[in-house]
Amino acid sequence: MPRFALLIDYDGTPFAGWQAQAEQPSVQGAIEAALARLDPGFAQGARIAAAGRTDVGVHATGQVAHADLARDWDPFRLSEALNWHLKPAPVAILAAARVDEDFHARFSAQERRYSFRLVARRAPVTHDRGRVWQVLSPLDLEAMRAGAAHLLGRHDFTTFRSTMCQSKSPVKTLDAIRIEEFPIPRGREYRFHLRARSFLHNQVRSIVGTLERVGAGAWHPDRVAEALAARDRAACGPVCPPQGLYLTGVGYPADPFA
């Protein structure tokens, strides 16, 4: 059976997360329902596998999944057919690619990239409602960058890990964390970009929520290092809401969509 990689973009607002759930709308379920219109295996319950299982309300601009199909589709025609059957769900197949049978969307991945959007202004957001986290006051960009620097490298991230996390180890390597600031009408937008081979459950939201406390002046940047060293969930700052989080890319030894 030929295997295809799918590059996926979605608005997570109406879904109970990526993973298929009984009687709950999911991104995985929407794509599998579209595949069931094209492939007998999915009509009988075959599943796709994804690089990451995003939570309820989390978005993606670069999710990757793979599917084994009965027919050897032209990749462009496959993406077009899937997009037709996905309507009107806010899910789009950006590209499809034929891959080797040993390619696995999750286990072949060498890095994952997330971005988080935070807007600071008094007036409510309108066009980006459900797609950003909003706070009322501007943040100190340099203080947040100083706090973030403590998190780079290989650490025990127990402090920034959900109590429901199923990962075997809290030790992860954070390869990059970059924070940008942009002017918007009557406010500022801050974008946090994080890159690692893999992340713990709620790790990105825990980090951003903690750095927001630094930017707001409630935490000194060095307190981030103290929280990390504590290896205690109680030492973490508040976990920020999911709607500002985006899975923006997944890295493989060779880009399947190149």
From TrEMBL:
Substrate binds at Y114. Formation of pseudouridine at positions 38, 39 and 40 in the anticodon stem and loop of transfer RNAs. Keywords: Isomerase, tRNA processing. GO terms for molecular function: RNA binding; tRNA pseudouridine(38-40) synthase activity. The lineage of its organism: Bacteria, Pseudomonadati, Pseudomonadota, Alphaproteobacteria, Rhodobacterales. The active site is at D55 (nucleophile). PANTHER family: PSEUDOURIDYLATE SYNTHASE, TRNA PSEUDOURIDINE SYNTHASE-LIKE 1. It catalyses: uridine(38/39/40) in tRNA = pseudouridine(38/39/40) in tRNA. This is tRNA pseudouridine synthase A. The keyword tRNA processing applies. NCBIfam families: hisT_truA. Residues 9-107, 148-253 form the Pseudouridine synthase I TruA alpha/beta domain. It holds the Pfam family PseudoU_synth_1.
